[in-house]
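Hi L.,

You mentioned the student needs an example of a multi-chain input paired with its predicted structure. This one should do, with 953 residues in total across all chains.
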Amino acid sequence: MEARAVCEILKYVIIHWKKEAAELSRKALLEGELLVSIEESTPKHRADPSHYVTTIAFAGSACGDLVPKQFLKGIQSLLSGFSGKLTWPSEEAHCAQDLAGLASFQIKIEVDEKPPTLMADCLVIKQFLHRTSIVHPKVRFHFGGEVNGILFKETFGVEKEPVVKLLNGIGLLTSQHHYMRPGFLGAQQVCSRIHPVLGHPVLLSIPDEEANMGLLGQLTLTPAAALCPCHKLHPDQTSRISAAFVFLYGPSGLPLIFPNQEHPLTVFKDNSYLFDWKKYHLRAAPNSNISLEDDLVLPDVSYWIESHERSWPQDSDQQILLLFLMVDFQGGFPAQLTEAWGLQSLLLTHLNSILLENQSLVQGAVQTAVDQALEQHHRRVKAQQKLQASIPVAVSSILSVVAGSTRSSFRALCLQTLQAVDTQEFRRRLHEAFQMTLHQRSMCDPKKQQLPEPSSSAEEREEGDESLDEALAGSCCPGEAPRPKRSCQGEGVGRKAQAASWLPLLSLGEAPQRSIGTGPTCSQARGWGGPETRGEDTLWLQEVSNLSEWLRAGPGSRPVP
Amino acid sequence: MAFALMGPEASFFRVLDQHRVSLIQSLKEGPGEAPRKEASSSEVLVSIENIIQDIVTSLARNEAPFLTLDNRSNWENIKFEDSVGLQMIPHCSTKKIKSDSAQSAQRFALILKILSMIYKLVQSNTYATKRDIYYTDIQLFGNQSVVDNIINDISCMLKVPRRYLHILSTSKGLIAGNLSYIEEDGTKVNCTCSTAVAVPSNIQGIRNLATDAKFLLIVEKDATFQRLLDDNFCNKLSPCIIITGKGVPDLNTRLLVKKLWDTFHLPIFTLVDADPHGIEIMCIYKYGSLAMSFEAHNLTVPTIRWLGLLPSDIERLNIPKDTLIPLTKRDQMKLDSILKRPYVTCQPFWKKEMEIMAELKMKAEIQALTFISSDYLSRVYLPNKLQFGGWI
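Structure written out for the whole complex:
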């Protein structure tokens, strides 16, 4: 229950923030900081359930005119049935300190919970914060505290993380580590971002029944699609789409569905509701195996994806199709804070029938966005098929000449070169060698690209490198691909992380700091601009430089040995 | 060789004979023909083995193999020589056909496939047509032009004329008139009959060529060719030979024209439409094409002359305006492109004719002459031109 209450308060805070910010600019991204800290305040001898205090502190550019008592009253009215104690710290405490010039506020929630339940709550809150941080990239979400003697600390949303602006003050973090684990791929990556394609917004018609329930206004859905990871710089790399993740966001860029929540959106159980998979020779099956303990941002709906066409090589890389569905609602009159908050759950209740009513519209919009996102993938699949189909033809042709030759020295030399004892082994070796060259190309070693091409002529043109033109022309992965500043990425709750930059906010509350152990520095905790990132950036810049040179040089200017 | 002579009196051919003498004279004075490469079968086999060996070596080094082909379709790689026509420069730019690129891997594999087939043909001393090769795996090759192109690439890569690759093509050309020969398989062919004979597929293999022809007329279109046959042109202007490549000529038709020139040093004339396409076809016979420039020495006949239909004939003969066709944008572009070609500078009269066409903004088909009289072409136009030297 506490997780739900915390998330509802967070929603309330963000809606307030968003509302205030919208008065200045509807398109500006929300800025600020938000802290959720959970601490055990039970004396050690006391039996469980323990007493926990959750502090929610927030500071933002648009909370200057917030009246604490009214705000608290509003929240209290929303949390009917909540057994915990909700308090607002003393008048002196609020606005006592400015954080980077921003006014800040605190709310305290006191509950009695058993530690395992609280641990589960922590995972839900963490996931909610992570999901929200994805579309509010200029808000820093800090989550930390101590549960059952274990200290944890995590920050979502960091400065300089690459962002794509979507609409109405909503952005999207494009670092791929939010959506997939590092090392998910077999091949080396140069681009560490996703490149979302924003679809066109569709106005959903609201059935009379739903309209009568309070949904009077304009309901729009805007899809955005991206493939993760980006393979634009590796057009010959074998890859297959192995999963599709759907992230559903409501007004104010808030997740419509709570993590782990049983939701009424049964439309998504129909695999073909959103997208005609057959068009790309794919088939989808629902995947209910979504674990909260996963450190990635979790989708609301997940599908396993399989290809109708062919079996893929074992070393083929996997890609995930990410689909963001942004639902927005504009009522006829400006909504009160509590009404705007209530709209979230109202929308969730009725969205299923609305989506059913508007299936063709939704599918059309999604299809357009996904088509664009998959176009590159589709081209790559075709390219890969061409490459794979060419190998047996080349192998059998070479073998035909070698086996048919009456010049024993030629035959012997060929077999010897590939260390084959007979033509059968020679065939196998040929096949393996061709596969190896394709694999090497797919690895796309930047050093390899710099090697001078063997050339007998000063004027030489290569056939088959248009992909490089594409990559550059399409401005794939422009700029840097920084990693977010994040404590202990991939370790989350239960691990002690290194110092974070949110201490000033923590100091607003009581936030007792009791550290257990001093584990080694998490290798993934390097911030943007750290050595690891710099390495990646250098690699990327090198790659761009190589490509630029390659293109600028044109025929005849390629380096020669 | 005894052919029934029903043609005009000997004096009719006076100008033609003079032209022939001047052609032979210029041949003697000229630089002479470049020695032609006569590749033996074993040389072809070794060339293919070398390519295979290079590929295997690349693979052993974990390097993606590639084939290097000359850029056949690039004007920058072409030089023009009046006595030869369009030919490739010795150190031309090349392109790589890479095995590890999606764009070229299929082409790489198909080149190897056809190389292996050529290897077998040469080894077994058998011949196949381009069509035969295409039909060995229709799905793999996709269409005939893919095979045709690759064969030309291989011929260029190995620096060996196509016939030495043991690849033939089904001829589309027709020939008629004062000519006889024996084909490679021993078949005796006499072209004097009223019906045309198909140009043989194996020009290299034909022998015992015999003719008393005073000239060879290349006719662009089959319809005109058939009309001339119907009008008994070959007998009326006997002894002569007429040939058609039915539009853009195939290799065999060009090879046969070349062979007839090499063997008999006959005056050769072209009868094409007075349009940019007709001029292009004439240029292919005379100076060769861009794509086959690597084999120019075996294909071009620079002594060919333009007999008709000349754009200046349109006004001279008062061809009715309503039989003319306006030049399309594409025609204009083609005309501009031909005018920029290197050989136009040494053909001032051709240039003048093309400028007349550009000025008129009209083109005329050979059939336009039928508006004057149904047999005007064979009865008046051609005899007059041939008798009085109306060629350029």
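You could point out the following to them. The interface with chain A takes residues 45-46, 48-49, 52-53, 55-57, 59-60, 62-65, 68, 71, 91-110, 112-113, 115-116, 119-120, 123, 140 of chain B (CB under 8 Å). The longest strand of chain B covers residues 66-70.

Best wishes,
N.
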